[in-house]
Amino acid sequence: MSPQPAPRIAGTAQVDEGARLDPGVVVWQLAHVRENAVIGEGSSLGRGAYIGPGVVLGRNCKIQNYALIYEPAILEDGVFVGPAVVFTNDLYPRAINPDGSRKLGDDWPAVGVTVRTGAAIGARAVCIAPVEIGQWALVAAGATVTKDVPAFALVAGSPARQIGWVGRAGARLVPEGEDFRCPLTGERYREASGELVKVDAGP
After folding, report:
1. Do 188 and 152 sit in the same domain of this protein?
2. What confidence tens digit (pLDDT) does each residue in 132-162 have?
3. Average pLDDT in the 67-95 region?
4. What is the pTM of this model?
5. For the range 3-9, what are the long-range contacts, defined as Cβ-Cβ under 8 Å and sequence gap of 24 or more?
6. How far apart, in whole angstroms, are the C-alpha atoms of residue 76 and residue 61?
7. Same domain, 20 and 120
8. Which residues contact 52 (CB under 8 A, 6 or more apart)?
9. Considering the domain boundaries, does residue 2 fall inside one?
């Protein structure tokens, strides 16, 4: 495998001091990467995307235009975040304290969204922290996620509810007897105690 090129940063993007961009990262116009954020090798940030202080992205993540990822979010490898997605970080959002003084960063504890390997968040979805999106799960466009999403689950609606299962290729799985089959790859899965596990000998 050939080495990745140096990060490519558009002239109108802003990368704050202390942020780490690994090789192969692409940052498009008007994106903003805050201090101490980590953007993993091969990841891309679309136009106007915002990555908060200390947010961690794994390798080969794709963050689409105007997505807002607030700290302390953690995204593992290969996560897709669609256009205008929002990850929140405040349990009790207020601009002021009860005494009327302006809230500062130390006046509230930040809570984060965790997204596991291969998961995808559809356009304009909102993830209300603290939640965890399981590996290879799929959050439908426009969904509002208020509780943890199991691995391989397909969730939709507001609040989001599970409506099916998806495979690693992202397609909705088709029931076949006791199993579920991916119509794109042929991979087979089986549900056990509310979780999905891969049962064939594929890669």
Report:
1. no
2. 999 999 999 999 999 999 999 999 999 999 9
3. 97
4. 0.94
5. 4/41, 4/42, 7/39
6. 8
7. yes
8. 34, 37, 69, 70, 71, 72, 73, 89
9. no
Q: What is the tens place of the pLDDT at every residue in 46-59?
A: 999 999 999 999 99
Residues 142 and 46 in one domain: yes
Share of the chain above pLDDT 90, in %: 89
Q: Is residue 119 one of the residues assigned to a domain?
A: yes
Over residues 105-130, the pLDDT tens digits come to 888 899 999 999 999 999 999 999 99
User: Do 156 and 189 reside in the same domain of the chain?
Assistant: no
Residue written as token pair 């691995």: 151
151 and 177 housed in the same domain: no
Q: Which domain holds residue 178?
A: 170-203
Q: Which of 14, 15, 59, 61 is nearest to 37 (CA)?
A: 15
Based on the domain organization, do 121 and 179 belong to the same domain?
no
Residue 5: is the preceding peptide bond cis (ω within 30°)?
no
The CATH number covering residue 64 comes to 2.160.10.10
User: Distance between alpha carbon 79 and the CA centroid of its chain, in Å?
Assistant: 5
